[in-house]
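#structure-requests
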Amino acid sequence: MDYEFDCLSFIDKEFDNPDIRSKVLSMIEAEMKTFTPNFDNYLSHLPPLPVSPFANSFALKGVYDRIAANQPNKEKLSEKRYLAEKPEPALENDVQAWKKCVQNCKSQIIHQENAIMNHQVAEDRVGELWLKQNSMLEKTIAMYKSKSDEVVKKVRECHKQRQKIQESSLPELSRLTVKRDQSVMRRLNCEAAMVHLEKELIKKGFNYEEYLEARKQQELQAADPNNAEYNSTVREYETVNVTVMGDDTVDENETEESLTKRQKHSPLVC
């Protein structure tokens, strides 16, 4: 069975019906499947992304191309330069090879000194920086929470206003609903009575189609301004009607019985 849904969610009780509830949920799911965002301006309301200083880096171009092509990283990070190894057995007697190893060891010592210095600086400064970062994050969260609460408040006020309007309109809507149902029922009864009368007339030999055709011809004649004979008949009828009925105004002292008697002799009464 098909249902016609409206937006009077605060006064309609059809949603309590499990069948209608499942129908509504299926309609919502079907509507969500048809959602296709426009990716050209889908995020246009957001601020633009900051420009990275490494966007045009020549050293990182290969990495950007690999990520754009969705390829895995086949080159692992080399840790060889962090090792203080002696020369290979074939170069144990090579002075230049030993000089390179000594230079590598000195580089490792400098690297460790820098790492130790960074740890010391971090112990002195990082705590304060983290506190500032946390404070900024807390302010940002409070700002967005305030905006979110404001939006939620507006939504609730909108729902309260809708509920008030719908509940105030409920008596009138109920009255109109009953009136509509009664009108529909009267129309159905009239249609059923017409069908019954047509059948009875057909049984008695009355040609209903010829009657409709005659009525149609009369309407066409009435609509034709060049039909002098028909217009003359209508004017004569109106003259007689005015003569019989007299003035259309009704005297306040005229009784209901006399008014009924005067209307009963009117040629307009069928």
